[in-house]
Specification:
alpha+beta, Immunoglobulin-like, 2 domains, 6-stranded mixed beta sheet, 3-stranded antiparallel beta sheet
């Protein structure tokens, strides 16, 4: 006659292994979902001027699939720091958006020669989107 299986060290190890597997799967799932939130297709069809010389302006256009009542559209440097706010805490409708940037920072001074990107933050939606592409600002003579 056989009794119930023993749950000694073998059962405890199996339980620990299963718990670790579940924790790893949860972490992996969270990581994948976070990646999708950052790279989803809410901001699409992005067109940036490739470069601007002193006195020129960069043209920036993109489409959004969601409207947001508290959006920011920012020019950022290579460290992802805000250089210029094109839109700050304002409504942004779903659809096409066109902006122009003259190479001037929030401080009113011309930015240094470097590559700059854009960042779209949809505050109500909790989305922070960094579309691909850079704008090369050429050196300014003085």
């Amino acid at each position: 006659m056989s009794g119930p299986p023993e749950t000694g060290l073998g059962g405890a190890r199996l339980g620990t292994v299963l718990l670790l597997v579940l924790l790893l799967l949860s972490l992996a799932g969270f990581t994948v979902m976070r990646a999708f939130r950052v790279s989803d297709d809410i901001v699409n069809t992005v067109v940036l001027s490739e470069r601007i010389a002193p006195g020129e302006s960069a043209e920036i256009s993109f489409n959004t699939t969601l409207a947001d009542g508290r959006a920011d559209v920012l020019i950022t440097d290579t460290e992802d720091r805000q250089v210029r706010a094109l839109l700050l805490g304002a409504p942004l409708a779903a659809g096409r958006h066109d902006f122009s940037w003259d190479g001037i920072g929030d401080d009113g001074a011309p930015v240094p020669a470097a590559d700059y990107g854009i960042r779209v933050i949809l505050g109500e939606e909790g989305r922070d989107i960094k579309p691909p592409g850079r704008i090369a600002v050429e050196g300014r003579g003085g």
